[in-house]
Automatic annotation (TrEMBL):
SMART domains: TUDOR. Transmembrane segments: none annotated. Residues 247-282 are annotated as: Disordered. Pfam families: TUDOR. This is Tudor domain-containing protein. It comes from Caenorhabditis nigoni. Signal peptide: none annotated.
Length: 533
């Protein structure tokens, strides 16, 4: 097995079309390209990279080499669809590979990427990154995408059927390996017949540094009406269906009609692609695709389509101009928001005006334990060794030998002094071992997480902490504590709402998680005032 990374792919394989990371050269490590707008003003949005089996929904098939799918739990409809009222501004600066918002339906906008600038008809080609559809539009209909929406990855995922190749055909007087239009149309018809597709990512000895490279997968269809627990053994191989080895899933009416057909008849049959021919002629016809048993996706090839779609001369009506009467805000909501801000803050300062002191970040502090206090409260005596502090280290939060996170383990001895150390209310735990104390500490964290989730799930208890206010308190050399709405991965283990210490605050905030451990960069909009309790 070869272990190869970005360093080798940049040297052996062709340069990436859309790199995931920048390779400086020499002995320097690759640097991942971050989301958002960089210093040169170029916008970047990550893509979802599948590395295991997943259930997806079909979007579009250009060919067996390029198929677009989307995860079942996508957020296109909930977070990435923009309807009135919503603040939209026309986009005046049109650049290739830049991102924008474009109408996908009547007065409905979604995220897109500019593929080609103006052609001879004055049209711009765009690609909707969450729906995998292309359109030719006029520049006047595009709107600016706020940088906030660049931190959500493309919802559309490009995959490629692993081990499936087009046969060599005579095209325009020379032999080429290209996908025929008939094969592409047949594939689209097959994939649309399945409500759910199952992808198994093919193993590769090379990690590619290219978002634009389709992910090689083994593709299966889940027939309608199949329960999730049966997906694994009821899935149908798409390559075998495309090759003709498996039948298409049929609707009940179609099954009844097929039952009436005499399958043993040697009479002439009509094919979709031409006039009536004998079965012997069909059997002798060269296959349009070739399926091979391959094991390493590193050298998987992507093939083009034999014919290209024609470029339209006129765009759709919704792609002609920006709606002049677009409503940017709800008047009632704006008035209510303005009244709340006037109640909460005075006009001349950032100090609280009518808010209760229970929410004042200048007063609400979380005392941090000193090394001396740690030694006094959590000393772990041993008969044959020097007293020490025993800690349960949070391995996932370890940054380096100089920065790591841990919880003290408490152990009581036989004398009275040691009993007073052991959190007096927990007498039944005084004689248990270190493992039980670690579990007890985890139960305490879970209990606190439930309390915070319960309290802050009520929208009335969420009071935003402004960036300007955070920066003002940090200039005063104050520790600023807050409650942070965390991402789904961290929330699964330690709760959605977590207490943090704000270490730094600029466009983003760097926070330290006080209960679960670790540091992270978060959006300042995810920080809320911490209540006194």
């Amino acid at each position: 097995m070869i272990s190869v990374g970005i360093r080798l792919t940049d040297q052996v394989f062709p340069g990436p079309e859309e790199p995931i990371a920048v390779f400086p050269g020499g002995n320097e490590n690759p640097k991942q390209i971050l989301d958002g707008i960089d210093k040169e003003g170029v916008a970047h949005i990550k893509r979802i990279i599948l590395n295991r089996t997943a259930n997806v929904e079909f979007l579009r098939a250009e060919s067996p080499s390029r198929i677009w799918v989307r995860l079942q739990n996508h957020i296109t409809d909930t977070k990435l669809t923009f309807r009135e009222p919503f603040p939209l501004k026309p986009k005046l600066d049109i650049r290739k590979d830049d991102y924008a918002l474009a109408p996908i339906d009547e007065r409905v906008y979604r995220r897109c990427r500019i593929i080609e600038t103006k052609n001879e008809n004055g049209l711009i080609q765009i690609f909707f990154i969450d729906d995998a559809t292309k359109a030719w539009v006029k520049a006047d209909c595009l709107a600016i995408m706020d940088e906030h929406y660049m931190f959500y990855p493309w919802q559309a995922i490009q995959i490629s059927m692993f081990g499936v190749y087009p046969s060599v055909v005579d095209y325009s007087g020379k032999l080429e390996q290209l996908w025929s239009i008939q094969t592409c149309n047949k594939l689209s018809q097959i994939l649309r017949a399945f409500p759910i597709l199952r992808v198994e990512v093919a193993l590769s000895t090379v990690v590619f540094n290219d978002y634009a490279k389709p992910i090689p997968v083994k593709l299966f269809g889940i027939p309608p009406g199949i329960e999730e627990r049966e997906y694994h053994y009821r899935a149908m191989s798409i390559s075998q269906i495309l090759e003709g080895g498996l039948p298409m899933p049929a609707e009940p009416e179609e099954e009844e009609e097929e039952a009436k057909v005499d399958v043993d008849s040697d009479e002439e049959e009509v094919l979709e692609t031409g006039p009536s021919v004998k079965k012997e002629e069909v059997d002798n016809k060269p296959p349009e695709i070739v399926c091979m048993d391959l094991y390493d996706a590193a050298f998987h090839e992507v093939f083009d389509v034999a014919e290209r779609n024609q470029i339209p001369t006129e765009p759709l009506d919704i792609h002609c101009e920006f709606p002049k009467d677009w409503k940017e805000s709800d008047d009632a909501e704006e008035e209510e928001k303005k009244e709340k801000e006037e109640e909460l803050f005075s006009k001349d300062s950032l100090t609280m005006k009518l808010e209760h002191a229970d929410w004042d970040p200048r007063q609400n502090k979380i005392e941090m334990m000193t090394v001396k206090e740690l030694g006094e409260k959590f000393r772990f005596p041993e008969n044959d060794k020097e007293p020490r502090i025993m800690l349960a280290v949070e391995g996932r939060c370890t940054k380096s030998p100089y920065e790591w996170y841990a919880r003290p383990i408490v152990k009581t001895g036989k004398n009275k002094r040691e009993e007073n150390v052991a959190w007096g209310s927990d007498k039944d735990l005084r004689e248990v071992d270190e493992t039980d104390w670690m579990l007890y500490g985890n139960d305490q964290l879970t209990s606190l997480a439930e309390q915070l989730d319960t309290f802050y799930s009520n929208t009335k208890n969420r009071k935003p902490l402004r960036t300007a206010e955070i920066q003002a308190m940090m200039q005063e050399k104050r520790d600023v504590f807050a409650v942070c709405a965390v991402n789904e991965e961290r929330a699964n283990y330690t709760g959605e709402w977590q207490r943090v210490l704000i270490v730094n605050c600029d466009q983003f905030a760097e926070v330290r998680f006080l209960d679960s451990g670790g540091r992270d960069m978060v959006l300042t909009s995810s920080l809320y005032r911490i209540h006194e309790q």
